[in-house]
């Protein structure tokens, strides 16, 4: 009855004062509290008392004095002045009339000629009529209740709902019931009040004014109540009303609860009263009243009560209305709180050896001695709730129950009883154990039971029944006598519950495979010989299956048995086709190495395979395929060990934060070890054995792409397809004995005489191209160490190309070692003399070392191709290195720095941003260096002053006369080394831009020489990305960036004449017009001199811009001319020509070709910036007009 929540009820203090007629207490009540009791007090003061004693006379005076200050007393006195005999006669007549005419008749003897609604009539009426109005309404409700046959209804009544007249209506109600008890029996009135709004409030006031009727009213309401009160609205209203009554008279609450159990009605009320009583009683260590009450209902001898309450539990679970307002939910929550209140706060799972244990002191901290009895009572109650009443525990309840059951009590008789109950409850309700962690907790507790049985028996003085029970249950499980186990459980718990034999299957597995045989199996497993030449062809149950299951259950770590050697021996004894259990075995082994079996014992892990053992597997691979004859280990073993190493490193990085939180840091394999493993060679071998290796090849590729992206470059895969395809077969056919006989020493000798004899080296290199990638490995060091000699002048191009080809073949099998050797070989001679050698780690930290090579490499295309390939690889490797470094140092995120105001997440975000910034700076620096390499040197400029790198500058259009000569010069320039290097660099930049478009934006915001714009726009297809951010670049405040943006845009418009380019070009013209009006003379000159020629490109790409551009140019000329005019009058010739250009533009074409015009222009050349700008503007206009005329 939520509608009563805002109303003031009679307090227990006031009710007790009324019961005892304690005038002193009544005088202490506040006015609002006293107002509720006025009907009884006024009748008490006015009516002749039966008690004629002097003390009552004094009390009566005090009551009169108390009432004298209350205004509402007058209205109650007026109510008592009415002729109740006549009122009763009229009421009886009305009852007879209603009985005769039917309950639906609207005629009334008590109330006639109602002009308005009941509320208004009540307000305007005098006391007699008010009595008649309330009596008529109350009789109507009582008649409807008697005719409803138990079906609940809610009657809408203005008199009982209007908050303004509630107190007056309550006064009338109390006076009527007191003066007409035969007409209005208080139990019937109470029943009727349940069907109106605010009924509970009226009922409490009525009983408070007749305190002696409390038990009568409660019994009547309970007797007429529903068997299941939570099922209907009527039942819930009845329960709520009775709860209010019991709150008003708490001393009778437990008696009312007894009535509930006696009648088997309103179970929710019984629970609610118990909850209210539990909250009021002082917190004690003993068993609470709630546990006792519910246990008594379910475990008592009365089957009717047990069935009745069990139905309440089942129905409560089936309802969707399982919320906080539900009594069942409140009961479960209170029980859970009590359970959690006695759980041990400190749990020690550390097993102390028996030799170290004190025979008189328990080695375990767990359940307190004063809580053991209460814990046992709670366990039995939950068993009854789940087994008899069908309660389905929530995840939280199950978790806390399991925590309680697996807690460790002191060695007392009560502790022995508790352990027995817990064990039987685990057997009866195995569903409480739902996760591997919970199962592990249970297994540890059962193991503790086995160890502590003798200790408990010696200390407690009783036979440790739980030890005997364990043995008995184990025997039953082994003999599969499940019914005997069920009988034992029911007998121990003291209740008959239904246990399905199928539910014991998990416990049977645990007992037979873990509790009693696990240690034995674990001890013997490591002594079982490995399966020789293990493959998928060997079927059946093998030792590997047993080891796998024991690893999953963490048996080896629990019993501190080393399994590493067995797993290593089995991995080495494998062959194709791959056995399907090997990969899961490696995964679960890695998990057992990194993840402790429990948080409380972080050192409980297996040992990883040592680095030396890993290296032994790969020994001899560096010598190429010929060395495999002497290898002891198969390719399957090598691939499995490689999978183990890569998976271990990945799992270590993935669990860094978790391990750091547990203050564990397992050792990572060193980078030196990883450098010695020929990863790429092994992957190539696996590629040819995909059918026999099952999922191993794809798993290795996944690990490689995640942790070694520089070994997964697309170009390398394409190159491998060419090397391992049909060409490889043809090469094997052409392979001669002479080619096989070339040794690395012969190759070194050929390099030594390279300056005087190219033929010998060329012959050996050509023969080496016929060898496979694996056979080339012995020649790698000689080939790379002599690369510096190839930079000398006079080395034939064919030698360089052949070396490049051999390098690419070696790159498919030993890329990382090859890259390090090559970078060191191509260092400038100064560094070589100093013997400064870089390592793999150095190059991953700073990939730009690759570009700090001998400057001659920049003009040697075959070696530059190799350099660019290494640069791309090390940029990818650097990203992977920094990502792994971030994960390795994740413990810094767990420990926030002091004075950190940004919260716990701040360090991680900051370090991630720093990493991204470093990578962006690294990539942009590489791009800038490569672009700088594309610039011609002074020597190259002098050699070919009129040539261009990739494309002729589109703005240097010449006449038909000298065009043939310039084309010949351009052809010569396109066949130079610079052009080839530019093509290679543009190809790499295109790949980088596509991989990360942010690099394009960063590089162009940094800027680079405008001489390279023609090269980059024409040579890098992805340069169209720049159209997206040119507006932002133009909006930068620096003039240099604005000039660079407009120049870049002019080339992009020619290369990509798209609608988007047109809109950006239009924006650029508008910006130029705006800047014209705001720039000073010096800045105007600096801005427009380099950007005016760009307008020619805009016109060429987009003719519709012609008018806007011509208008801009003339505006520039006018601004400059006006500035000049204020200083001198010597500028008239230019102003005149501007006017001519504006009036007769058709003559400009002829004017531009007139030699006299050009000479005239030279004559007026001036150092004045405005004059020079006007001349530049004039030339731009002429070029635009010439272009348009020639285009026509």
Mean pLDDT: 78
How big is the Rg?
49 Å
Structural class: mainly alpha
Residue share in helix? 55-70%
**Beginning-to-end CA distance, first to last residue:** 94 Å
Number of strands: 0
Describe the structure.
The protein contains 67 helices and no strands. With 1192 residues, it is mostly helical. α4 (38-46) packs across α5, α23 (413-428) packs across α26 and α32 packs parallel to α34 (635-654). It is flat, with a radius of gyration of 49 Å. Belongs to the Integrator subunit 2 family. It comes from Alligator sinensis (Chinese alligator). InterPro entries: Int2_metazoa (IPR026236), INTS2 (IPR029321). It is found in: Nucleus.
Key features?
single chain, 1192 residues, mainly alpha, 67 helices
What's this, in brief?
The chain is built from 67 helices and no strands. With 1192 residues, the protein is mostly helical. Among the domains are: 72 residues, no CATH class; 137 residues.
Describe the secondary-structure layout.
Blueprint: H1 12-20, H2 23-27, H3 31-36, H4 38-46, H5 54-68, H6 73-80, H7 84-101, H8 118-124, H9 127-147, H10 158-161, H11 166-179, H12 186-193, H13 199-209, H14 214-223, H15 233-248, H16 253-263, H17 267-280, H18 289-299, H19 303-318, H20 327-342, H21 372-387, H22 395-405, H23 413-428, H24 436-460, H25 465-479, H26 482-493, H27 505-515, H28 518-525, H29 543-552, H30 555-558, H31 564-572, H32 582-594, H33 611-618, H34 635-654, H35 656-661, H36 671-676, H37 679-687, H38 690-693, H39 696-707, H40 714-724, H41 726-734, H42 737-741, H43 744-752, H44 758-768, H45 773-776, H46 780-785, H47 797-810, H48 815-825, H49 829-833, H50 840-845, H51 861-888, H52 891-894, H53 906-934, H54 938-943, H55 963-974, H56 977-995, H57 997-1006, H58 1013-1019, H59 1030-1034, H60 1039-1055, H61 1059-1078, H62 1081-1101, H63 1106-1125, H64 1132-1143, H65 1148-1153, H66 1155-1163, H67 1169-1191
């Amino acid at each position: 009855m939520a509608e009563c929540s805002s109303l003031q009820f009679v307090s227990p203090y006031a009710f007790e004062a009324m019961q005892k007629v304690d005038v002193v207490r009544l005088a202490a009540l506040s006015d609002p509290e006293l107002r509720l009791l006025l009907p009884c007090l006024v009748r008490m003061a006015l009516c002749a008392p039966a008690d004629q004693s002097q003390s009552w006379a004094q009390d009566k005076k005090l009551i009169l004095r108390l009432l004298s200050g209350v205004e509402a007393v007058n209205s109650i006195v007026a109510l008592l002045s009415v002729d109740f005999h006549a009122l009763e006669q009229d009421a009886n007549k009305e009852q007879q009339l209603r009985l005769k005419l039917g309950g639906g008749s609207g005629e009334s003897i008590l109330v006639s000629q109602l002009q308005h609604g009941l509320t208004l009539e009540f307000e305007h009426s005098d006391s007699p009529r008010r009595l008649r109005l309330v009596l008529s309404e109350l009789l109507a409700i009582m008649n409807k209740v008697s005719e409803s046959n138990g079906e609940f209804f809610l009657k809408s009544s203005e008199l009982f709902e209007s908050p303004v007249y509630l107190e007056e209506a309550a006064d009338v109600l109390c006076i009527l019931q007191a003066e007409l008890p035969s007409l209005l029996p208080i139990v019937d009135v109470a029943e009727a009040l349940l069907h109106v709004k605010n009924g509970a409030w009226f009922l409490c006031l009525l009983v408070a004014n007749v305190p002696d009727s409390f038990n009568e009213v409660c019994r009547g309401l309970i007797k007429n109540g529903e068997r299941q009160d939570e099922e209907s609205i009527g039942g819930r209203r009845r329960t709520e009303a009775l709860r209010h009554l019991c709150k008003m008279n708490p001393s009778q609450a437990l008696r009312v609860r007894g009535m509930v159990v006696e009648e088997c009605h309103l179970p929710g009320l019984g629970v609610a009263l118990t909850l209210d009583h539990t909250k009021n009683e002082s917190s004690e260590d003993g068993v609470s009243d709630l546990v006792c009450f519910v246990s008594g209902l379910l475990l008592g001898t009365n089957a009717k009560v047990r069935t009745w309450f069990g139905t309440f539990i089942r129905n409560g679970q089936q309802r969707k209305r399982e919320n906080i307002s539900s009594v069942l939910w409140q009961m479960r929550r209170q029980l859970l709180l009590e359970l959690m209140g006695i759980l041990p706060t400190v749990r020690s799972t550390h097993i102390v050896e028996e030799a170290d244990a004190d025979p008189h002191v328990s080695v375990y901290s767990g359940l307190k001695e004063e809580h053991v009895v209460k814990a046992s009572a709670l366990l039995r109650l939950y068993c009854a709730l789940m087994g008899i009443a069908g309660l389905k525990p929530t995840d939280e309840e199950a978790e806390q129950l399991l925590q309680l059951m697996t807690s460790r009590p002191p060695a007392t008789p009560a502790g022995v009883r508790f352990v027995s109950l817990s064990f039987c409850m685990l057997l009866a309700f195995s569903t409480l154990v739902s996760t591997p962690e919970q199962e592990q907790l249970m297994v540890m507790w059962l193991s503790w039971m086995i160890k502590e049985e003798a200790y408990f028996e010696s200390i407690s003085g009783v036979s440790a029944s739980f030890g005997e029970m364990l043995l008995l249950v184990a025997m039953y499980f082994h003999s599969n006598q499940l019914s005997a186990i069920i009988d034992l459980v029911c007998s121990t718990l003291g209740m008959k519950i239904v246990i399905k034999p199928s539910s014991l299957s998990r416990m049977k597995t645990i007992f037979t495979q873990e509790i009693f045989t696990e240690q034995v199996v674990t001890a013997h497993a490591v002594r079982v010989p490995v399966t020789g030449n293990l493959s998928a062809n060997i079927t059946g149950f093998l030792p590997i299956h047993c080891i796998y299951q024991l690893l999953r259950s963490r048996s080896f770590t629990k019993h501190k048995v080393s399994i590493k050697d067995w797993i290593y021996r089995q991995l080495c004894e494998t062959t194709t086709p791959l056995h399907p259990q090997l990969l899961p075995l490696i995964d679960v082994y890695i998990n057992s190495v990194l993840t402790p079996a429990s948080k409380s014992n972080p050192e409980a892990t297996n040992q990883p395979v040592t680095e030396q053992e890993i290296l032994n597997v790969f020994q001899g691979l560096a010598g190429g395929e010929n060395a495999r004859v002497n290898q002891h280990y198969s390719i399957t073993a090598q691939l499995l060990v490689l999978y183990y190493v890569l998976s271990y490193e990945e799992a270590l990085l993935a669990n860094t934060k978790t391990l750091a939180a547990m203050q564990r840091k397992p050792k990572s394999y060193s980078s030196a070890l990883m450098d010695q493993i020929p990863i790429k060679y092994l992957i190539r071998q696996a590629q040819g054995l995909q059918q026999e290796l099952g999922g191993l090849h794809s798993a290795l590729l996944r690990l490689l792409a995640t942790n070694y992206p520089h070994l997964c470059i697309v170009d390398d895969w394409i190159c491998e397809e060419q090397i391992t395809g049909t060409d490889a077969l043809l090469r094997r056919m052409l392979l001669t004995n002479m080619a096989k006989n070339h040794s690395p020493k012969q190759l070194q000798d050929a390099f030594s005489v390279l300056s005087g004899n190219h033929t010998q080296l060329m012959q050996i290199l050509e023969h080496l191209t016929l060898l496979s990638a694996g056979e080339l490995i012995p020649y790698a060091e000689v080939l790379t160490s002599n690369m510096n000699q190839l930079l000398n002048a006079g080395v034939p191009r064919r030698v360089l190309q052949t070396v490049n080809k051999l390098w690419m073949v070696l790159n498919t099998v030993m890329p990382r070692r090859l890259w390090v050797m090559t970078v060191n070989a191509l260092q400038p001679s100064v560094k070589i003399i100093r013997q400064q050698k870089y390592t793999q780690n150095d190059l991953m930290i700073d990939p730009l070392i690759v570009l700090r090579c001998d400057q001659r490499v920049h003009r040697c295309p075959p070696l530059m191709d190799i350099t660019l390939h290494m640069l791309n690889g090390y940029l990818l490797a650097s990203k992977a290195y920094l990502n792994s470094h971030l994960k390795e140092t994740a413990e810094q995120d767990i420990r926030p720095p002091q004075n950190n105001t940004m919260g716990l997440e701040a360090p991680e975000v900051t370090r991630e941003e720093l990493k991204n910034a470093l990578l962006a700076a690294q990539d942009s620096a590489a791009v800038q260096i490569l672009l700088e390499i594309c610039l011609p040197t002074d020597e190259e400029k002098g050699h070919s002053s009129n040539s261009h790198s990739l494309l002729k500058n589109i703005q240097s259009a010449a006449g038909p006369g000298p065009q043939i000569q310039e084309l010949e010069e351009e052809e010569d320039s396109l066949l130079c080394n610079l052009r080839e290097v530019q093509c290679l660099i543009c190809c790499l930049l295109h790949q980088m831009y596509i991989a990360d478009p942010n690099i394009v934006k960063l590089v162009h915001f940094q800027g680079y020489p405008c001489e390279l714009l023609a090269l980059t726009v024409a040579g890098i297809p992805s340069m169209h990305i720049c159209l997206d951010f040119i507006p932002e670049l133009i909006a930068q405040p620096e003039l240099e960036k604005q000039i660079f943006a407009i120049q870049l845009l002019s080339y992009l418009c020619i290369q990509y004449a798209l609608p988007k380019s047109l809109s950006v070009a239009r924006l650029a013209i508008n910006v130029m017009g705006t800047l014209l009006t705001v720039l000073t003379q010096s800045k105007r000159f600096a801005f427009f001199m380099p950007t005016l020629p760009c307008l020619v490109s805009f016109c060429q790409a987009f003719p519709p811009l012609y008018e806007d551009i011509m208008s801009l140019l003339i505006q520039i000329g006018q601004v400059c001319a006006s500035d000049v005019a204020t200083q001198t009058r010597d500028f008239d010739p230019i102003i005149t020509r501007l006017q001519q250009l504006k009036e007769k533009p058709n003559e400009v074409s002829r004017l531009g070709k007139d030699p006299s015009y050009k000479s005239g222009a030279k004559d007026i050349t001036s150092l004045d910036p405005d004059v020079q700008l006007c001349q530049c503007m004039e030339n731009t206009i002429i070029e635009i007009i010439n272009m348009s005329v020639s285009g026509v």
